[in-house]
Amino acid sequence: MNPILEAICSRRSVRSYQPQPVPRDLLSTIIDAANRAPSGMNSQPWRFVVIEDAGLRKKLVATAVPNSKKYLEPIKVTNPARHALIMKRYEELEDPVYYSAPAIIFVMGTGTYASDSCPLACENLMLACHSLGLASCWVKLGSLVTDNPEIVQALELKENETIFGPILVGYPDNIPGSPPKKEPVVKWI
User: Fold this and answer.
1) Which of 9, 141, 159, 180 has the most Cβ atoms closer than 10 angstroms to its Cβ?
2) What is the distance in angstroms between the CA of the first residue and the CA of the last residue of the chain?
3) CA 165 to chain centre
């Protein structure tokens, strides 16, 4: 298997990190890889904010946890067993949203091509992490922080901007096995 396919097949979403910080040169390298993603009309509609500050991380957790619990409330009806499992994790972990990763990279974008292009930057970022021995995890629930003015100010989030990812980055403490994947649905014409 070639190295790119190997990276795609072996990358995992990691939710357990060692506390050691990620050197800035590695963070810059993975951001550069994200910045090289394809974008509609070469618009490059993204920007990146790296959170390493412990105080801001605590504010992120304090804001995201109750918001994510509300967001997950419908699962209580549609899949009660899954909801119970998720809520158990919320009780057990100090940080059940960002998993105490030493770096959180917010990928934000604006404009016509942001919704199509920013996810490509996120994927490049995660593959770059994997290629450098770092772990990553995209956490939708980590974006549920826009009701906190202090966080909005720290992120310099503009009114027309969207958060496409907080992506957790760090050295893995535990790498999960490969989850089962469904066969792709393909129509050949």
Assistant:
1) 141
2) 27
3) 5
pLDDT value of residue 17: 97
| pTM of the entire predicted model | 0.95
* Cβ contacts of 152 within 8 Å, gap of 6 or more: 145, 146
Going across the sheet that includes 103-109, the strands are 46-51, 103-109, 162-170, 135-138
User: Domain-by-domain residue ranges, the chain?
Assistant: 15-170
Taking 3-state DSSP, the helix, strand and coil percentages for the chain, each rounded to the nearest 5, stand at: 45, 15, 40
DSSP 125-162: HHHHHHHTT-EEEE-GGGGTTTT-HHHHHHHT--TT-E
What is the number of H-type helices and E-type strands within the chain?
7, 4
Q: Which of 10, 2, 58, 15 is nearest to 172 (CA)?
A: 15
For the domain made up of 15-170, give the CATH fold: NADH Oxidase (3.40.109)
Q: Give Dmax over CA atoms of the chain in angstroms.
A: 55
- In whole angstroms, give the CA distance from residue 46 to residue 44: 6
